[in-house]
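This section describes the prediction task in plain terms. A model, or a person checking by hand, is given the sequence of a single protein chain and must write out its three-dimensional structure as a string of tokens. No templates, partner chains or ligands are provided. The sample shown here is typical of the held-out split.
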Amino acid sequence: MKNLLIRTLTGAAYVIVVVCCTVLSPWSLGALIVLLTLLAVNEFLSIHCADGRRRVNRAVVLCGSVLLSLAVFVQMYVAATDVFLLLMPYTVFLLMLFIFELLADNEDPVGNLALAALSQAYVVWPLALLSVLAFGKFPVVANERPFYLFPLAVLIFVWSNDTFAYLTGSLLGRHKLFPRVSPGKTWEGSVGGAVLTVGVSALLWHFWPVLSLPQWMGLSLVVVVFGTFGDLTESLMKRKLGLKDSGHLLPGHGGILDRIDSLLLAIPAAVAYLYLCGL
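The expected answer:
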């Protein structure tokens, strides 16, 4: 009972903080992106460097991660300026990674560089694309929209799918979806979560008809499918590392990567979908 209470309170606090930061102002959204990026990258490096085989200069990688997040945010919201000028500090960060490996006497320099690059591709870039979801000028969107609409919609779809898939799977689940990676997921739960999340998209269309109903439904399905892939990807990493959770930051829920794993694939997929819809 105590563990359930802790899990419930932690989950509620997490949702409240994320939603409030998302909708309060563009600056609070930017701060949320930077905070999630720092926490997630630090956790990602911690679990992959725990065995001591790889040694990544964490301070440099974290600074570079923030630089990329800020560059995308500034480009999308503050001012449309020279993209290369904004990315110049990040370019310096990339050069520093190679220089540090040349100077350091590490056992696996190629593995260190690969891990640093993976942290950018897997964590930093998807979270940076939240700025594109918020402030991007998508051809398919004809009317004005609140900046928080698409980031909030992706969050709602991910959370709805997680909740409905768990409930449906608990009641009807019989056939395993991907037992090699995540034994608890079932086809019945995944289908039930997807169907009910599409229903949630109809509510968003009712309140914000900036997309047509089929387009909202399509966005929800894209988020559900790629969010599930994101969940399975992190489960694969943890299984290969022999971990149950990615960290202990959120009592009862594990680490921050355990909370945003679905978003890391769902956000880029949502951005691609919204641009492709306008073609």
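For orientation: The chain has one domain: 2-277.
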